[in-house]
Amino acid sequence: MRVLVVAATESEVRSLKSEVGSRKLDFGLKTLDLELLITGVGMVATAFSLGRHLAANQYDLALNLGITGSFDRGLALGEVVEITEDTFAELGAEDGDEFVTIDTLGFGMGMYQPSAKFSDFAGSAKLKTASAITVNTVNGNEASIKKIAERLNPQTESMEGAAFFYACNQMNVPCIQIRAVSNYVERRNRDNWKIGPAIKNLNTFAIEFLKQL
User: Fold this and answer.
1) What pLDDT is stored for residue 33 in this prediction?
2) What gap in Å lies between CA 116 and CA 109, rounded to an integer?
3) How far apart are CA 82 and CA 80, in angstroms?
4) List of residues 6+ apart from 37 with CB closer than 8 A
């Protein structure tokens, strides 16, 4: 099985990279061909890097790993979730106080879904699911947070997720997006962030998941 792990930054998958590089992952009799692609931050970098890579390589599964901010206080900091739909939140046009989606404009799609599910590969293991938006500007203004929450009611946000889904769907590659909650979406307050625990949980999850494939 050929698997591509996709992350925006190396820091988000450092433990996984170390495990793979040192050959500590014990896959038993299973054959797993694993590659890691660091795309850079943001939807443009993700779409370009992933599109270019997939044009020259074929995979049975693409796995997007990263941290995420959460609008949903029911998701605990550090919790790992499966993203089941992701929307380009800013793709469209403004009409006064109204936002017109790219779908309504007739120029494409704004929301994308994965072409695979965690449960397809994980047997009886379960993982909480969440919706997401992908943004160019991480929300940190109370007015903009309220506005986007009312319009799309997202649970999480990232800067790459929908671009990952888009590229994989265009290239017909089964894909899953897994993220760990590093902070709540609010005015920037680094003292409240839990990036370290989120990354640790994300990598622990990824290593165990890959062992099952």
Assistant:
1) 86
2) 19
3) 7
4) 4, 5, 6, 7, 49, 50, 53
Tell me if 79 sits within 8 A of 201, measured CB to CB: yes
Note the pTM of the prediction, 2 decimals.
Answer: 0.93
pLDDT for the residue numbered 29:
44
Please give the single-letter amino acid code of residue 208.
E
Give me the domains of the chain, ranges plus CATH numbers: 2-212 (3.40.50.1580)
Q: Phi/psi at 56 (nearest 5 deg)? A: -115, -5
Task: Provide CB contacts within 8 A for 95, sequence distance 6+.
Answer: none
Yes or no: say if 39 and 8 are a contact pair by the CB < 8 Å rule.
yes
Return phi, psi of residue 112, to 5°: -130, 155
- Counting as low any pLDDT under 70, the low residues of the chain are 21-31
Residue 157: what pLDDT?
98
Q: Which pLDDT score, from 0 to 100, does residue 116 have?
A: 94
| pLDDT number for residue 32 | 73
Of 74, 70, 192, nearest to 132 (Cα)? Answer: 70
CA distances from 55 to 19, 59, 63, 168, 175 (A): 27, 11, 17, 10, 15
Q: DSSP E strands: which ranges in the chain?
A: 2-7, 33-38, 61-70, 80-88, 92-95, 98-101, 111-112, 129-134, 156-158, 175-184
